[in-house]
Amino acid sequence: AMPRRRVHAAAAPVESLDLDTVPKVTYNDGSEQPIIGFGTYKVGFIPASASSAEAAGGSPENAESLGASAREIVRQAADIGYRFFDCAEFYGNEKEVGLGLTDSGVPREKLFLESKIWTTTIYQGEEAIRKQVDQTLKDLNTDYLDLYCIHWPVPRNKHIEAYLVLEALQKEGKIRSLGVSNYAIEDYKALMEKATVKPCVNQIEVNPFLYRKKTIDFFEDEGVRIQSYRALRDGKAFDHPIIESIATRYGKTPAQILGRWCVQKGVTYIPKSVRPDRMRENAQVFDFELSDFEMNILDERTSGDSLKTFEALYRKCVVRDTPLKDVQNGEWLTSPVTVE
After folding, report:
1. Which of the following is catalytic: 91, 123, 211, 229?
2. pLDDT average, residue stretch 155-177
3. For residue 211, is pLDDT > 70?
4. 34 and 19 in contact (C-beta within 8 Å)?
5. In the prediction, which pLDDT does 17 show?
6. pLDDT at 16 over 70
7. Which residues contact 97 (CB under 8 A, 6 or more apart)?
8. pTM score, two decimals?
9. 123 an active-site residue?
């Protein structure tokens, strides 16, 4: 069961948020993106291999996602004021997301659309990748993507070959900015030996319970911005006493404390909810600021166990759904990876 959120008095929802005025993140290629986006994973559809995706024992039976359709949920998110939508081939719902965006009537130039290429397609190579990018463009009803990412660094150079295809698609105008996701420092270094276009972002899990400072600092120093998924840790930390006490102090909800910690770090925050009241709540993180003391306390919530869980998940997911997952003693199981 999802932990129930205690209702905090000051958390009365507003009708719609002026998310046009939220802070923007500037990429190394000069383009800009809102620091808050709307996540579409498990919105109206749960992928077959989803259970293994959950770091730290998440719940695949996330039934709340299966009420309204993705089309309806995305339209509501756009009505509330979200403009950046985080999509992916793997999420299996891009057509519905595209319909919801069309229903919303928000003009394309006001939207920021991100998608990602899945491991299976990365493994298959150029022809499959090109076909998938065209499919995503068609499904999202657009002729370009603001940002397109490699979803996982599939080993044996597969992710590097795939990224070079994305570089070509960028030249062809189908993709504005290039990015990666779930990359360790080692993956990035291997990529940059061959790539000519530096990725703009690395989307990884970031929250106080998985705060990999060494990795985040490395990418920031390289000029690669960090996007966070699971910033709200699937609701699993809402009743953590430290988060509750900070929430009470500000008259905010635990979700808003986690979201604020993220944006205050300059990390792009991509909350997901299928309920309009939560969509509003999640976005109300720009009207208060945490103290340095509170930020530091939250920074220190990451345990050695969390890092071990993360490492095991990373080693499994880089080959997930591909034929490489059946390889005995694959080098990705033991190759050095910076976990912190």
Report:
1. 91
2. 98
3. yes
4. yes
5. 65
6. no
7. 40, 43, 70, 71, 74, 85, 87, 139, 140
8. 0.89
9. no
